[in-house]
Amino acid sequence: MIGCPSQGQGSSTRSTTRTRSRTRPSRVPERCGCGCRPVLRWSGTNTNPDKPFFDCPNYNTRDKTWCEFFLWGDDVEEEEKHEGRVDATAVDNEQRIEKLEAEVRTQKYMIQFLGIVVLFIIVVVFMTLKF
Q: Ranges for the GRF-type domain (predicted)?
């Protein structure tokens, strides 16, 4: 989501996730301080090789303001720990999948219908040519 629509507003809000205790896992927010969706990356440093983390997509990007959002992947609470909570993103994805499946079913019916129409036309043309 680099270059997200609200990036130009340049919020200077700092992430509070940096100050959280290591024993208290947190959730990855829907949006960072820039209004963009945080991205998952892997550390390339010697001190944290291949360690996953979430950060602002505008980090280290020319001409973009970085809101300084950063969260280590191991600080993120696992999905099973969210007892009773419904993840809005998962619900949105389920609805999108259901809609796409309905569209696929409709397309399959249309293809079958058109196949029958083409077969009917071929039979009619063949019958008229024969007589």
A: 32-76
CA angle 62, 36, 27 (to 5 degrees): 125
For residues 105-128, average pLDDT:
95
This prediction has a pTM of 0.42
The three-point CA angle 84-72-17 to 5° equals: 70
pLDDT-derived band of residue 121, with 50, 70 and 90 as boundaries? very high
Instruction: Provide the token pair at 127.
Output: 């019958």
The C-alpha atoms of residue 66 and residue 69 are separated, in whole angstroms, by 8
- Give backbone dihedrals phi and psi of 111, rounded to 5 degrees, phi first: -65, -45
Distance between CA atoms of residues 56 and 39, nearest Å: 6
For 62, which DSSP code?
A: T
At 41-53, the pLDDT tens digits run 888 899 988 888 8
